[in-house]
Amino acid sequence: MALPGGHHLDSVTLPGQRLHLMQVDSVQRWMEDLKLMTECECMCVLQAKPISLEEDAQGDLILAGGPGPGDPLQLLLKRGWVISTELRRIGQKLAQDRWARVHSMSVRLTCHARSMVSEYSAVSRNSSKEMGQIEKLLMEKCSELSAVTERCLQVENEHVLKSMKACVSETLSMLGQHFGQLLELALTREVQTESCSVTELECSGGISAYCNLCLLGSSNSPVSASQALVRKIDASDNIYTTESTTGNLFSLTQEGAPLCRIIAKEGGVVALFKICRQDTFRCLYPQALRTLASICCVEEGVHQLEKVDGVLCLADILTDDSHSEATRAEAAAVVAQVTSPHLPVTQHLSSFMESMEEIVTALVKLCQEASSGEVFLLASAALANITFFDTMACEMLLQLNAIRVLLEACSDKQRVDTPYTRDQIVTILANMSVLEQCASDIIQENGVQLIMGMLSEKPRSGTPAEVAACERVQQKAAVTLARLSRDPDVAREAVRLSCMSRLIKLCRSPSERNSSDAVLVACLAALRRLAGVCPEGLQDSDFQQLVQPRLVDSFLLCSNMEESFV
């Protein structure tokens, strides 16, 4: 195999690095790369498995350039990224029942896992009994996955394959758990033992070079930097140094949940709240709060926030009009994060209950005065999560005339111009609609007409995220309508505005709801509630198919319905 060019690669400038020159022996580099490129293929041949010729095989992962000698952090991050991507791809092929592909990828996954374990053990000084046990469990699950997928290749009975598919899925899930435990334990140990010069890291651009865990040659690691960055923030009284270091810490939080957990454990939350409690650092509040919101995506971050009375600090910022709108918006983002219904730990935030009234009042005011869609989105997202957090919040919102504030905002394109924002608004309305007093406020503010409009929510760009947001808006609008229609006045107003015909169209036309089953169920429930009050608004065929049968029968009828293009 001939390599283009001469024998040496002289003074090549790497992108993203300032005048960072390196001398590389091309033959030596090729030999290092060759080991990683051929390792998996060799293992496939040794196990008598042919290399796949499928069209998507060209997307198989190859590590370009191995970690440097004695650099366990780069090794962990590179191998970790490859293995996690392989796990995701195996799951995709499993869902498509492409068993040959699942098996070949399982073999390759085993190779990557074995390489990570052996290479890390060779360069790391931090081996322990606990790590050894997890490594053993990981490799056992890898072998089990390879064995069971090989058996699946020999099975032709569909019923047997279906039962084996559940077994493969469970094995894959357990393998992912063991891998996550091993990676997090190894990363944490490296953070605890390695020291790193933050000044060197900042000058070399090492943090930005780790986007997607791809290294551009820097010898510094953001994982080993987290402890040093936290200490530097905690000790610094210089505004420029603190700003730079906080920005670098934020960059680390964008590398994923494992690093956020490590930053939280190393005191990142404490150090950032220290900034937010000093008037001399007021101009840094937005940046510090943005970093806090990223860290609090994990339970460890929320626990640390609770320990340092972080909720009280957030309440002080939100209720202080002397703070800029940007600062209060970022504080709202932290509130939205720590009250997320997806984090089970948020239900135990005892300190939040003490400050909830102040926070809710400040958030409603921020929604009312928001100068941009982004600020309104952050404030409304926090309110939406709080309505899940405690039902008392809905009563507070009712007393604060929040319905009027939210519905007025819907007609302001500067504040509400995306389905993501309407998703937050309709979430609040859906949760508030359990209160009997809510119905009169909705009618008074022409809320039924706005809810009717949300049933027609359509994506502009067609991206998966926007399509999913539109589905949530339609579903929650139907849920809100069903709950409010307990009040006869609301039901009659909905019928007058032709809500029933829109609900029928959503049920009968899959394209109107993007074939979403969740939207279908919500629309059937709303339609039945309205039909109970105003049955004359339905045609006989609609009544017999969508209202009279059991809900599950109507659901099956509509979910299997093919559209007519005649």
Q: What is the tally of helical segments?
A: 27
The 3D shape can be described as flat
Number of strands: 2
Q: Sheet bearing the most strands, described?
A: 2 strands, antiparallel
Helix content: 55-70%
Going across the biggest sheet, name each strand in turn: 1-2
Ranges where pLDDT stays below 50 over 5 or more residues in a row are 1-23, 40-59, 61-69, 194-225
Q: Which strand-content bin applies to the residues? A: under 5%
Ends apart, CA distance between termini: 62 Å
Structure explained in plain terms:
One of its GO terms (biological process) is apical protein localization. Residues 79-194, 227-566 form the Protein inscuteable homologue C-terminal domain. Residues 22-68 form the Protein inscuteable homologue LGN-binding domain. This protein has helices at 26-46, 72-95, 99-123, 129-153, 158-193, 198-204, 222-235, 239-253, 257-265, 268-276, 285-295, 299-307, 310-319, 325-338, 350-369, 373-389, 392-399, 402-410, 419-432, 438-444, 447-454, 464-484, 488-496, 499-508, 517-533, 540-547, 551-559; strands at 8-13, 21-25. The chain has 566 residues and is mostly helical. Among the domains are: 72-179, Up-down Bundle (Four Helix Bundle (Hemerythrin (Met), subunit A)), CATH 1.20.120; 441-565. Helix 10 runs antiparallel to helix 11 (285-295). It is flat, with a radius of gyration of 28 Å.
